[in-house]
Amino acid sequence: MRHLHTRTARRRAVGALTAGLLCTIGLAASALAAPAEDTVSPALADGLALTPPMGFNNWNSTHCRAEFNEDMVKGIADIFVEKGLKDAGYQYVNLDDCWALQSRDADGKLVPDPARFPNGIKAVADYVHSKGLKLGIYTSAGTKTCNDAGFPGALGHEYSDAQQFADWGVDYLKYDNCNNQGVDARLRYNTMRDALAAAAQSTGRPIVYSICEWGENKPWEWAADVGQLWRTTGDISDSWGSMLSILKQNLPLAQYAGPGHWNDPDMLEVGNGGMTDTEYRSHFSMWSIMAAPLLIGSDLRTASDATFDILGNKEVIAVDQDPLGKQGAVLSSEDGRWVVAKEMQDGSRTVALFNETGSAQHIATTAQALGLPEASAYTLRDLWQHKSYNTAGTISATVPAHGTVLVRVSTDTKWAKNPPAVELGLEGSLLAEPDKSVALTSTVTDLGRTAAKQVSVKLSGPAGWKVKAASPTTASVLPTGRSLRTSWKVTAPAGTPAGSYDLTLKATYRSPTGVRAENVLPLTASVVVAPPSGASSLGDLPWLSTTNGWGPVERDTSNGENESGDGNPITINGVVYAKGLGVHAESTIDYYTGKACETVTAQVGVDDEEGTDGSVAFEIWADGTKVASTGVLTNAQAAQAISADVSGAEVVRLVVTDGGDGITSDHGDWADAQLTC
What we know:
The protein is an alpha+beta fold. It contains twelve helices and 38 strands.
């Protein structure tokens, strides 16, 4: 779970083991020894969660506010039915923290908050069940839950609480890790497993068990015979940097996932507003190809049509829910251009061409690399366009910044009925100063076994922009592997404000049988202003783009982690700085330097606002080449000077990485950061 200061509260909540508490909860000291290291544990043979659980969790929608109540939960169940989410496969309506009173009753039982749930949890479960759905609930493997209000946790009450959950008709338990008093994680989570099994035996109600210990004890190595899913990371936030960091932590764990035992990289942020729809499609695509649980974390009561379109894409959901149960494996990831492939039960392969970078990238693989048998051609199904094509064996696309092309590739004797796949590309810089033309070259390449005929390409920009072709825009035929190349001149009008502007490259063509097809590549051009001469504080200059692990990049304050402006004075090892940039790993900040600047300098380190926690590394890049770095820095270290020669660079990027141990508490400061031009 999460709240405004979740991770700080969790660090306080973990606490130290005390003999008095051990007596209170009745755990023998001999039982606290950690089990010996072993190989991956076998999965539970209970038939639960044979595909990754799909549903909803209320926390991001309501936190602990009063609106989290019986009516809200019932309303979500109604929305599942009305909006087609149930039909798409979503089952679980899950309650997070704050559903109970802060004290147990005289018999040690949990008490639902009568203001929130006047009819009790069973009545809510009955309503959810009447819709053909299932109900989930939350507690923690500690003395209290994660919320600062201090709701009762299940440590020492496992059998009683599990019995209550089963009696109420609960179908799913999220078991958090706060206030665990230092008790061994395997002991705590095993005890609840046994309690749930006992409750299921007495009531006939099995409960899906979600282990939420944040990946601290590598549950993927031992939890397959404990629960059906386990968190592999800390909490996700609604930002590109957070999503990307968690994705990179979860991808290497493919070998541990399978039917009834899933890696859980945390709930979906789709629709919460902190990312673009392109980024949300990437989020949903990558969670699906990783066979991750799909738990909606946005407020469905106010969700946009675009959000429902993403969450309800049945072709993408089918990848996540494929019965073979394999998590996608990374085939390549060079320079942020990812190819991730997933074997499907029917023998096909789903492949994600994922672009983590801030500009469009060519990403490619082949049917052979995917492990498909040799064939003269293959059917390629685009799972976002919902269109099928034929390919001679190349799976390739120019993928927009932060975008994902998700396709399913199969050997299919009827491949020829589909038009050939074509790839669009655009060469040249999309950075433009007003009233100065930039030269671009578009390509249309036939990837199919059949020829593309009557090919036409068009590049368009915003109203008032001049977009002029300087070479032919049509071709009568493109055989397999051949390209139409077209030169363009693009000019933003004088006075165009700095910022991002949409360009669209579109090709239309016909198959040999006359089937009309098209391909559209959305692109982003940046109108830029030449940097001022002399030394400037980077906190005062406009940036091209930023990504950040938690919260926005802050100017002249620390990160603060949540809303814009919530930071503090930049402070590194007790020294306060008036100017600079406050970030949270993973973070990038891009500046246009127009080949007119010489140096970047800064004092860098971990901000004091996270106490003794946090470890980060700082890097400076010039036009895609790393030109300076610090190595890993911790809160215990004073600020370190970093300086880089960026002569001749068009774009300078400031990067903060997580130090190799996840992004929790990784608040980095670029203090006194200056650019000299």
